Amino acid sequence: MTIPFLDLKSINAQYRQDLVDAATRVIDSGWYIQGTELKAFESEFAEYCVSKHCIGVANGLDALTLTLRAWKELGKLKEGDEVIVPANTYIASILAITENRLKPVLVEPDEQTYNLCPTKTAKAITSNTKAILAVHLYGQLAPMPELMTLADQHDLLVLEDSAQAHGAAINGKKLVVGVMPQASVLPW
């Protein structure tokens, strides 16, 4: 007996022509980096996220790395500062932190949601903690209101890895990802 696990072909069938058309426009334009297609995507995605800005980069790791690096350049972080991150995150979260010579502090996730737990996060904060990297998983948002309260109490930066949270909702209400923290990364 064969049990289909994930049939991407049937999932993407409804989008096939749109994807072919978009790829054709890019190929025909000769602009594989930057160009009008990227600018149009950035504009449309910023509008979808109710955000002033959207900057397209190669992947989520680059986006996380560049955001942390920008904060270092702005003097908001320095080498050796601690960044709290969920222990069950994808390796890109850790690599972005260590690439910037920051120290990842792994916090066990909430047993129900697998996202950061505010109580466990609070216990992990030290005088060296300068940021929280909240990673939304499985279409569920981390408890951002609670994490932002915690961040405000301790003067911490907050970065969202929203790769799995495009259009996600919390308590049945669509929460605009990226509105509360200082930065949000939404790899596409």
Keywords:
single chain; 5-stranded parallel beta sheet; 2 domains; two-stranded antiparallel ribbon; alpha/beta; 188 residues; Aspartate Aminotransferase, domain 2; globular
Helices and strands in order, then pairings?
Blueprint: H1 8-12, H2 16-29, H3 35-48, H4 60-73, E1 82-86, H5 91-99, E2 103-107, H6 118-124, E3 129-135, H7 144-154, E4 157-161, E5 169-170, E6 173-174, E7 183-185
Parallel strand pairs: 1-2, 1-3, 3-4, 4-7
Antiparallel strand pairs: 5-6
Helix pairs in contact: 4-5
Describe the structure.
With 188 residues, the protein is an alpha/beta fold. It folds into two domains: 10-48, no CATH class; 60-185, Type I PLP-dependent aspartate aminotransferase-like (Major domain) (Aspartate Aminotransferase, domain 2), CATH 3.40.640.10. Helix content is 39%, strand content 15%. It has helices spanning 8-12, 16-29, 35-48, 60-73, 91-99, 118-124, 144-154; strands at residues 82-86, 103-107, 129-135, 157-161, 169-170, 173-174, 183-185. The longest helix has 14 residues, at 16-29. The protein is globular. The two termini are 35 Å apart. One of its GO terms (biological process) is polysaccharide biosynthetic process.
